[in-house]
Fold Transcriptional regulator, TetR family.
Amino acid sequence: MARHKEFNQQEALSKAMETFWRYGYEGTSIQDLVESMGINRGSLYDTFGDKRSLFLAAIAHYDETVVQNLVSRLEDPKASKQAIIDYFYNLIERTVNDQSRRGCFLINTAVELCPHDLEAQQHIATNLQRIENAFYQALDRAMQKGEISQNKDIRALARYLTCLMQGIRVFSKVNSNRDALKDIVQTGLIALD
């Protein structure tokens, strides 16, 4: 008879995600995961498979929780230019309050694994495309409302905003000074004018 799992799988997955986010894939050991998740090795392997499978599940969990929360405001049918502006100023606050300077789990993974890991690259590309599409939708509504010029290439602008967001997260690993981040955002958002 199969034994009933005595832990919450979503909580354990969230803890694994946090551990990978903090230390990276290569820097995280199975022992680190066991300790942070509060489960034994057998439960980890029985529930999530090997370290790689758990890591890919953690990326999917990041998409379902963190990315979903971030893009939902941009995907709102009423979201347009102000939603984009608000997004970046909220990003500054989240970044300044990130005392551990973890940056973005997606970009950390891209830098660590994507040059030599096609599967990780595909997962990260899918997540970044989702963010780009959310910016695109808000830009399209902004253009329809006359908030931005009709001659803007909003697909290129959505890619730029995605890159600006990720650049801020990388920059903040070195310098999380609020004024410096505001300068970057204000300069970057000139593209919306």
